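Private note to self, pasted from the team thread so I don't lose it. Backbone tokens:
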């Protein structure tokens, strides 16, 4: 098949045999008048124009001997000259033939069809063929066998037999011709009276109507009884199964994540008693629970009117079920029944970072420990950005979403607002952002994201930078109408930075506080392209932590304290009282 190429000449005389499977139309050579067999090899230009009658009419017989107007024709190739018969007319289409030029395969096709129908070759005439895109449509005529009892016509049984072969698709498979479609099986002339679709003996119209009415009445009665019996169960199932079906539609892989029953979690929390309550947020309440195997867990239970909807619930299950890192909170399981949405996490006994910065415990983390918390948090986010497949943008990094376990290892939590990052091609090309509605917590939101609605990895870097400023100052991102970024920048530019450093973190080397401050301000740069990547953040924190002197707390040794008492003496290059950004009265802070 050389159609539509640029062949302009062939050495020697181009005179291929007529039955060769060669297509040349669309080439310059077809405009050369010296080419023989032009019609066979240089045309047509379009499939739809290729309508080529295959069978030859018999011209040596007298027309009067065959009543053409009564659907009779002469049969060529039969042993009786000028044999007149009435054919069956069949519309037939090859759906995916392995060729684009039919004449060389005509003989093979005729043998294939007649063998399948148990007919002689002369009984099949291919009336015409036509290409329809990549399908070959044809009209076939099937003639009765010469010498049949009823000369010139198929018997009724033979019509039914042939039609049955076509309609039941029992033709043997063929790689050459592929599958076929039966377009029509026309019964005209002497076959017009045959009704092959309806049995000769049937049910009377009156009996049929009666049977239908009785069947409908029985169906209505049965459905009514069934509805009464299962109504209550169905209503309960409808409410609780909607989210489960949604989980299955999202194709969430829940490897290692357990589906808890409402009863199991109620028992683990003493029926959600106030004594088990450890926190609350916009979504609802968090309970401490003890499972049947004595595993301590945190159970986040949403309430009616919760800010966390079904989408966030499913997103968190989807994300955490496939994320595994020592600095990400692990999802143990979930409950989605009794009209309840609950998520079950590993229990983080030390609470949130915000709890420790607000002095709720009466103790405060040392500077070195705060650096370690910052590094742990950055490593968790780095995993999301570079090692998760596909990468993930957290979109809600804040101090209340950084939790501490019994060893003060920091872990990032709450993936309800997270979004999958765009997948790049092999060369790393592609969009670097996700266009989405602005979601997150005021004070932590990237200004560029607020303006353009383009969420990027640098949006998470900005939010983590705000957390770093909280770690240094213990301020809230927004407090009394003041913004932590603006206040820290002003203090840094005026040389009064140490006036707003948290004076409850014990002694610290001012040089490394300034390094940590510089990193935090780098992260909260207004322009995303000027912020560091999360990998840069991790490397810088590791460098600071490796070089900071062993002052105050050595958390690498067993039994070391990770915090200092609030009354500890404050040592730095400056001993100035804290900023008035904090009112001095810490309101209750509830983890999200």
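Design output:
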């Amino acid at each position: 098949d050389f159609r539509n190429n640029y062949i302009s000449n062939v050495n020697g005389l181009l005179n291929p045999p007529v039955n060769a499977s060669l297509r040349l139309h669309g080439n310059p050579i077809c405009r050369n008048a010296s080419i023989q067999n032009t019609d066979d090899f240089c045309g047509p230009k379009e499939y739809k124009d290729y309508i080529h009658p295959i069978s030859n009419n018999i011209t040596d017989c007298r027309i009067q001997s065959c009543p053409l107007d009564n659907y009779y024709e002469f049969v060529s190739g039969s042993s009786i000259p000028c044999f007149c018969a009435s054919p069956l007319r069949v519309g037939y289409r090859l759906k995916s033939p392995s060729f684009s030029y039919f004449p060389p395969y005509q003989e093979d096709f005729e043998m294939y069809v007649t063998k399948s129908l148990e007919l002689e070759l002369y009984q099949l005439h291919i009336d015409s063929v036509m290409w329809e895109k990549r399908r070959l449509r044809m009209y076939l005529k099937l003639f009765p066998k010469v010498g049949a009892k009823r000369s010139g016509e198929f018997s009724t049984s033979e019509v039914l037999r042939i039609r049955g072969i076509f309609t039941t698709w029992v033709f043997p498979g063929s790689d050459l011709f592929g599958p076929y479609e039966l377009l029509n099986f026309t019964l005209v002339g002497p076959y017009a009276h045959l009704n092959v679709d309806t049995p000769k003996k049937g049910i009377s119209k009156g009996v049929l109507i009666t049977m239908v009415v009785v069947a409908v009445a029985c169906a209505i009665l049965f459905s009514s009884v069934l509805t009464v019996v299962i109504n209550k169960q169905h209503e309960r199932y409808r409410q609780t199964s909607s989210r489960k079906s949604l989980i299955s539609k999202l194709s969430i892989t829940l490897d290692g994540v357990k589906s808890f029953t409402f009863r199991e979690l109620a028992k683990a929390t003493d029926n959600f008693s106030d004594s088990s309550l450890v926190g609350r947020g916009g979504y609802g309440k968090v309970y401490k629970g003890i499972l049947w195997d004595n595993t301590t867990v945190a159970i986040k239970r949403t309430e009616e009117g919760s800010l966390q909807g079904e989408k966030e619930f499913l997103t968190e299950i989807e994300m955490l079920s496939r994320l595994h890192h020592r600095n990400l909170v692990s999802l143990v399981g979930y409950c989605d029944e009794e009209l309840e949405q609950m998520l079950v996490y590993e229990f983080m006994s030390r609470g949130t970072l915000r709890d420790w910065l607000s002095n709720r415990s009466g103790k405060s983390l040392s500077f070195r420990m705060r650096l370690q918390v910052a590094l742990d948090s950055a490593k968790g986010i780095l995993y999301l950005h570079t090692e998760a497949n596909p990468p993930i943008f957290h979109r809600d990094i804040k101090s209340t979403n950084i939790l501490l376990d019994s060893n003060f290892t920091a872990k990032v939590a709450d993936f309800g607002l997270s979004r999958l990052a765009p997948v790049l091609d092999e060369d790393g090309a592609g969009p670097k952002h996700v266009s989405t509605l602005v979601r997150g917590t005021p004070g932590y939101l990237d200004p560029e994201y607020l303006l353009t609605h383009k969420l990027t990895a640098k949006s998470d870097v900005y939010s983590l930078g705000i957390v770093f400023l909280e770690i240094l100052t213990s301020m809230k991102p927004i407090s009394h109408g003041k913004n932590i970024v603006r206040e820290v920048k002003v203090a840094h530019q005026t040389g009064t930075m140490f006036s707003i450093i948290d004076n409850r973190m014990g002694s610290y080397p001012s040089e490394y506080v300034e390094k940590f401050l510089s990193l935090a301000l780098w992260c909260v740069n207004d322009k995303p392209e000027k912020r560091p990547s999360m990998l840069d953040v991790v490397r810088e924190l590791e460098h600071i932590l490796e070089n900071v002197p062993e002052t105050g707390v050595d958390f690498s040794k067993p039994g070391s304290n990770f915090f200092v008492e609030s009354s500890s003496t404050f040592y730095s290059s400056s001993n100035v009282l804290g900023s008035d950004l904090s009112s001095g009265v810490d309101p209750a802070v509830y983890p999200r």
